[in-house]
């Protein structure tokens, strides 16, 4: 059975105490720090931009897993790489020339991921799956934290896992939205590799313990 990795989403962190929140993640068993970038155009919310990513990177001792929920992401790849991104994930729905986008991310020395909104079929990735490092399957509609998990995600993960196996891809499957211990366990069984958790981690009395429990689902 695959080992679960955890990428806590700082979208749910206390922004007034961001340094202490990053220090907590550094001291935890988290594998990555998930950074959601929203522009108010591709998704109906605005999160934060490059200066905040740079500030997180100054204090972080975990790799930054940057998720671009924005239109025209290609024009910002270099800036996010300089800001500290180790992985840059773009949305399939925002990239008309997806293969070119993936190449551009790799040329910067970053890992490249593709995210899928809930309505998008995993079959759309079949022709590019061997070129990418991870797929983020959105298990809620992107834009806001704390949403209810979409049950169809389990079937979607199983279908994606079959494509990855059939093509010999090394891409990891990352799930973003509505993750808790119950959904995390089922997602692992379906073939997920990485769990993104925001409010479930940062809203807990003991976030480090929750991260440990997510790793053990």
From TrEMBL:
One GO MF term: metal ion binding
Annotated cofactor note: Binds 1 divalent metal cation per subunit.
Gene3D superfamilies xref list: Aldolase class I
* Co-factor requirement: Zn(2+); Mn(2+); Fe(2+); Co(2+)
Keyword Protein biosynthesis included in the entry's annotation: no
CDD domains reported for this sequence: RPE
Which residues does the record give as substrate binding sites?
9, 67, 143-146, 176-178, 198-199
Q: In its UniProt record, which GO terms are filed under biological process?
A: pentose catabolic process; pentose-phosphate shunt
* Keywords, sorted A to Z: Carbohydrate metabolism, Cobalt, Isomerase, Manganese, Metal-binding, Zinc
Enzyme Commission identifier(s) = 5.1.3.1
Q: Where does a divalent metal cation bind?
A: 34, 36, 67, 176
| Entry's transmembrane regions | none
Pathway(s) this gene product operates in, as recorded in its UniProt entry? Carbohydrate degradation
Cellular component GO terms held in the UniProt record: cytoplasm
InterPro entries recorded:
Aldolase_TIM (IPR013785), Ribul_P_3_epim (IPR026019), Ribul_P_3_epim-like (IPR000056), RibuloseP-bd_barrel (IPR011060)
Catalytic activity of the protein: D-ribulose 5-phosphate = D-xylulose 5-phosphate
Which residues does the Swiss-Prot or TrEMBL record annotate as the active site? 36 (proton acceptor), 176 (proton donor)
- Tell me, what does this protein do in biology? Catalyzes the reversible epimerization of D-ribulose 5-phosphate to D-xylulose 5-phosphate.
UniProt family annotation: Belongs to the ribulose-phosphate 3-epimerase family.
Tell me the protein's name.
Ribulose-phosphate 3-epimerase
| Gene behind this protein | rpe
């Amino acid at each position: 059975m695959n080992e679960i990795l955890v990428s806590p989403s700082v979208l749910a962190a206390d922004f007034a105490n961001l340094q202490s929140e990053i220090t907590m993640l550094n001291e935890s068993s988290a594998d990555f720090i998930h950074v959601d970038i929203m522009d108010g155009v591709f998704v109906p919310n605005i999160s934060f931009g490059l200066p905040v990513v740079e500030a997180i990177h100054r204090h972080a001792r975990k790799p930054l897993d940057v998720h671009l929920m924005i239109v025209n992401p290609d024009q910002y790849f270099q800036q996010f790489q300089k800001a500290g991104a180790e992985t840059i994930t773009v949305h399939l729905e925002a990239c008309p020339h997806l293969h070119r986008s993936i190449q551009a991310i790799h040329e910067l020395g970053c890992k490249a991921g593709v995210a899928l909104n809930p309505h998008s079929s995993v079959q759309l990735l079949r022709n590019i799956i061997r070129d990418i490092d991870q797929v983020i399957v959105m298990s809620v509609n992107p834009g806001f934290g704390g949403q209810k998990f979409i049950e169809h995600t389990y079937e979607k993960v199983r279908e994606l896992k079959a494509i990855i196996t059939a093509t010999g891809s090394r891409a990891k499957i990352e799930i973003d939205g509505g993750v808790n211990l119950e959904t995390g366990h089922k997602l692992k069984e379906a073939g997920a590799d990485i769990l993104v958790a925001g409010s479930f981690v940062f809203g807990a009395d003991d976030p480090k313990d929750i991260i440990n429990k997510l790793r053990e689902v």
